[in-house]
Amino acid sequence: MSSTLSIKRFFSRFGAVVLMCTSFTIAFIKPVAAQTLNKQQQAGMAALKKTTLNSDLSYELVESLTTEVGPRMMGTPGDAKSIVWAVDKMKSLGFDKVWTEEVTSTQWFRGEAKARITSPYPHNIVAIALGGSVGTGEQGITAQVAQFDSLADLKAAKPGSLKGKIAFVSYKMSRHIAGKGYGAAVGTRVNGASIAAEKGAVALIMRSVGTDSNRVAHTGVMRYKEGVNKIPAAAISNPDADLLLNQLKRGKPVSFQLTLTASIEAEQVIKSANVIGEITGSESPEEIVAIGAHLDSWDVGTGALDDGIGVAMVMAAAHHISKLDNRPKRTIRVILYAAEEVGLLGAKQYMIDHKDEVKNHVMGAEWDFGVGKIYEMTPRVGPKGLKAVDDLAKYLAPLGVKSSGKNNGRASSDMGLLTDAGMPSMRLSADGSHYFDYHHTENDTLDKVSPEDLKQNTAVYTLFAYFAAQASVDFRK
Amino acid sequence: MSSTLSIKRFFSRFGAVVLMCTSFTIAFIKPVAAQTLNKQQQAGMAALKKTTLNSDLSYELVESLTTEVGPRMMGTPGDAKSIVWAVDKMKSLGFDKVWTEEVTSTQWFRGEAKARITSPYPHNIVAIALGGSVGTGEQGITAQVAQFDSLADLKAAKPGSLKGKIAFVSYKMSRHIAGKGYGAAVGTRVNGASIAAEKGAVALIMRSVGTDSNRVAHTGVMRYKEGVNKIPAAAISNPDADLLLNQLKRGKPVSFQLTLTASIEAEQVIKSANVIGEITGSESPEEIVAIGAHLDSWDVGTGALDDGIGVAMVMAAAHHISKLDNRPKRTIRVILYAAEEVGLLGAKQYMIDHKDEVKNHVMGAEWDFGVGKIYEMTPRVGPKGLKAVDDLAKYLAPLGVKSSGKNNGRASSDMGLLTDAGMPSMRLSADGSHYFDYHHTENDTLDKVSPEDLKQNTAVYTLFAYFAAQASVDFRK
Fold first, then answer.
1. ipTM
2. What is the helix (H) or strand (E) element at residue A461, kind and residue range?
3. Which of A23, B208, B243, B423 is deepest in the core (most CB within 10 A)?
């Protein structure tokens, strides 16, 4: 208890700025009495818990999105359909305000991917273009494979040593509840092509960033370094990467043919939109509790997990809150971001469009990771907000959510930009052990969604949003 | 004890014919002393157990087959390569005799499959032609979908009621350790097209016969009924079947486009071969203990499970036995059947080629199911063989193999034809809980093979074959 008190004294002396930049571990104290919410608001929490745990609304929403819209990569017909879908749904769900904000980009076409080991033992290989890759031309590229265990090994290759070769990074992502294997694997996808090109490679192939054993390759965004030759980049499936390694270990040269008909149309501007809906606050409508997800998906699955369930649960959360007798004090803003997959374009646009309003975002959380139940909460709030967070934890504990004991919870993906700009945030961590089995593949489909888990997810987001909109505390302070 | 004895008296009175046609349950007795093998032979069993559990040979063989040959559907270049591979491997493994026996058939080309829901909500669908299906023509077939929960429901449809429609059977296979869900699901694949055609349908689509949740469709052989219009038939993946059902349940007509460029070239004769190798018996070389698997696979994966591991373990078993100081009394014959997948063609040819020799097959077992450890043994032997089987069970029990207590063990797939012709047989049941996740798909690849399980599998087959080749009993009697 004493150590906790001394930490609290420390924060009250050095203030919120220090707190929000640190990853210091904090042992939350049990509050003597719950004072963040009044009796009526506590009754609201109880009612919302009951409603959300017994409602199929969020499942119905993700079923509708994946069945009636499907894949929705920026610039595709599905993207346009999803915007109409989201606006219509928000209106029918009783949101007080619904609007869109334009997001633009240049066009990229995936085209087709064909890959094949041509010698010593010919095999067809399952491959997919990385998002943003240039194509190979119709005739493809055939070259000898130079294999690297990791991106670090590729970086260490001598300049010119890959001249005329296809670089192959075989690093395998590991499984983890919080997706911790992703960080170590994704660098190759984002930066590998330019690093390989600097060594003279004519193309990059990589083992998919994924934890599955399916012959399905994982796409995802990549970037070219300015001034470096743009070479085609593709991911191959895990079993195909194993096969390629087994051929390579025989010591003979392995020849690989890659054909990507992808193309970048730099002059062609495509449009999408952030879709925003609000439940207007009754006392401080200018203060915003933001809950978000991204509406776009990759073009290969139906984006059920990434990020259909997020879209569904934040829409359902706002709807359930809107059905109470009274609006909460603060405004609840549901932000469905455009074009997250292709580089957080919707989030970046939001930061421009709402530059002057960022300070009014009093709390926010985004869902963009996980496939199971939420097991942990990590705030990022000012010292005065910590007590309220402890109080919230009491409501979420019966749902299986534990406090991480840290106060460094950056919001997920898009909304991380708001955290970085000073918005108090909550990271609600869901079980992601199997998330990367499906991530950015054809297999991201509705059957992977557990209706029971989704009820818990929705309950947590709903209680969080309502609590933040009613709390008698300023989380920023 | 007494009930067991009375069963034994029953069998000695009514003989082997009755026994081998019944599925009567038998409680095996514990033999007072193991007399089936002599001391030297018991030492042989001990040596083989030690060798097989410490050898990587069978894994190396399946790694070699899948890496250097890959898919090997009858009539494809991979099929021809696999025959050369098997002959070479058997020779290098020290088999006493190695030869091939020609198997012929007509040519079928898979071509490409494209499928799409065109309305009310357009979606691309993952589909694959069933083996033997006719094509749709390049322009494809577009028609309204008529859905049935099961093959029985399709059969119950009124004649003419499906005129101009695509029949869709959505029956979902269940998971079971012994693959018991397969029987209930596979009828649609084999016979569904002609049943649908009799009702007027223009094509059949079906939910894949598989237990996975991947967007990968399962192929497998189908047959047309004589005199009925041949319509194209395809399987769609489990998630795609779910999506189609979700569109149908909205009550609007669902339109589906199917394009299969498959074709049957009835006049084009293709050749394959059964590959046979022997370890020649030292005392009764004319008596054959047969261990088998099929060498062919479908053209989509690398046939690691179906039936690469079977090929590997029976080859390894014979090799390990050949390395003992003395040859067993009887001949051990390894039969690698051709063209199992397209209709047991190699097995049927074997029955013709070896018609006069069937009576000399004193015991046999085939591996063509499972992906895990062998957990159960079920013989099908004459009454005198039962005691020897009890003795064998003592050797296999420490490896985790239990007696099923039945005496109706038909050998798997190809070799079932020999069982039906009177060959005493052993069914060695492996865990197949996850077998149908990969069966007949691109995902049947080496990474699904557990090196540890394969050691146990190989140990069991090796001990079984050696025991049968040495046993001082005639299993037929």
1. 0.90
2. helix A451-470
3. B208
